[in-house]
Amino acid sequence: MALAAKLQLRQSQSLVMTPQLMQSIRLLQFTHVELEHFIDEEIERNPLLERAEPQDDAASDQVQKIEAEPQAAAEGDWFENETGWSAEAISEKLDTSLENLFPDDPGTSERLGPDLTAQWKSASGNGGGSSSEGLDAGDMAASAITLRDHVGEQIALAFVDPPARLIAGELADGLDETGYVRADIEEIAARLGTDAASVAKVLAVCQTFEPTGLFARDLAECLSLQLAARDRLDPAMKALVANLELLARRDFQTLKRICGVDEEDLLDMLAEIRALDPRPGMAFSGGASDAVVADVEVRAANDGSWTVELNAETLPRVLVDHIYFAQVSPHAKNQAEKDFLAECLQNANWLTRSLDQRAKTILKVASEIVRQQDAFLVHGVRQLKPLNLRTVADAIGMHESTVSRVTANKYMLTPRGVFELRYFFTASIAASGGGDAHSSEAVRDRIKQLIDEEKPIDVLSDDAIVDMLKESGVDIARRTVAKYREGMNIPSSVQRRREKRALASAGR
To answer: Who's near 116: CB < 8 A, 6+ residues apart?
Structure first.
């Protein structure tokens, strides 16, 4: 067979991930803090973007002028001026249109429903992202002292000799966030050209720093340092600290034999251990945790249903400054400047559309979750239904991956508290009588209640819990009960029986 070159035409379809589409996907899974940070970066990059800040009466006319742009521009028919930059010319750089990237757009009242449409309008009209131009107390507050700074001050007072101070600095650099020394003494000695004895001598001085327990090399040493500072490191306590693995297993009988004490003395020793700080360095972690801000609020309506609304504080309002674009576009000197302005306008319009789509999608998913978990909102965790992403996705006509991104790191404020949206998605456990399946979260709560109500003389084994759950209609295996119990940090029946007997003996 002869080989020959041929020219063929082939037509095919493929899904192209444009930068705009990738941005829209990222926005869906952003938390409130991440979204605010992303918008700040976009505003810094794009001169046509600005936040919708609260305006005084003198500036209200200008705000109305900005927001009263032609309806076509607001709905996606981008701005057209005397330069001849039409929507078609600007969108040539796009691989597809906005509508093709949002096939499940719930923007119309037909797709979203009249109730959700009204709620969306009420939520989006409140505006968010306002900030004061003046400094508040938080801006002027001094930064927290770090563990390294705190230790450095004590090193400067404790050591006068420069070599010893240098060794102490190396040890301080080896501290982790809990205050333990993770660096090896031999390695530090080799790196500084000294002997291990000198490093150990400096380490002993550093272990006297406040708070007591810093510069320990493990948990036992950390507890020993604190007990020694309290003058409580007697032989019995040393034996207890040296056998922390037995304490973790609650093997009190063996501990009494090793320490040479009776039950009353052992309970006193355990109380002293609990009063110690196993992580003394955490007080100087300096990490400010972000407060949880609910993205969705659920309230009971007068007619017995539930009102689902977006939290206005988590809805950043971003405006496209068409007036500024109209002012600067005629003065573009070359094609590069025209392309830059066109790209800025394109990105600005796309960002506002993506933010709008993100908010609507979150509301739609949250509304379906509320509809599915109505019994939980009324009666509590025992009525939490088994639910998966596919069920919600099929109900609202979206892809399962979209629902997964929406529910990641989003929170819902309900009359029963604040819950992550992922909390409502639980595995299904079959019913023993062939009825409706049970939620794994509800079964966990039932297991915890059974264990909390058990008596010291009748500690429930995992098999006994299985039998009791089957009597109440839950078909569950013993290994599943053990997994749920361990996940809630509940010890086994043997360990619980030992602890209850020890407490009962101490009570007598």
So the answer is: 106, 308, 363, 364, 367
Q: What is the DSSP string of 483-503?
A: HHHHHTTPPPHHHHHHHHHHH
**What residues form DSSP beta bridges with 474?**
431
Tokens coding 117: 């449409």
Instruction: Kindly provide the residue ranges of all beta strands, DSSP E only, lying in 265-360, ordered along the sequence.
Output: 296-300, 306-310, 318-320
Task: Give all strands of the β-sheet with 296-300 in edge-to-edge order.
Answer: 306-310, 296-300, 411-414, 417-420
Query: What is the torsional sign of CA 210, 215, 221, 223?
Result: positive
Cα distance between residue 405 and residue 27, in whole Å: 9
Give dist(CA 321, CA 73) in Å, integer: 12
**HEC profile for 167-219?**
HHHHHHHCECCCCEECCCHHHHHHHHCCCHHHHHHHHHHHCCCCCCCCCECCH
> For 442-499, how does the pLDDT look when each residue is reduced to its tens digit (9 = 90+)?
888 889 888 888 887 788 888 889 888 888 888 888 888 888 888 888 888 888 887 7
3-state helix, strand, coil in the chain (%, to 5): 55, 5, 35
* Beta carbons within 10 angstroms of residue 2's beta carbon: 3
Please count the CA atoms within 13 angstroms of the CA of 401 that sit on its side-chain side. Answer: 2
Taking only Cα atoms into account, the Rg of the chain, rounded to an integer number of angstroms, comes to 32
Find out whether 180 and 217 touch, Cβ atoms under 8 Å.
Answer: yes
pLDDT, mean of residues 238-261: 85
What gap in Å lies between CA 481 and CA 495, rounded to an integer?
16
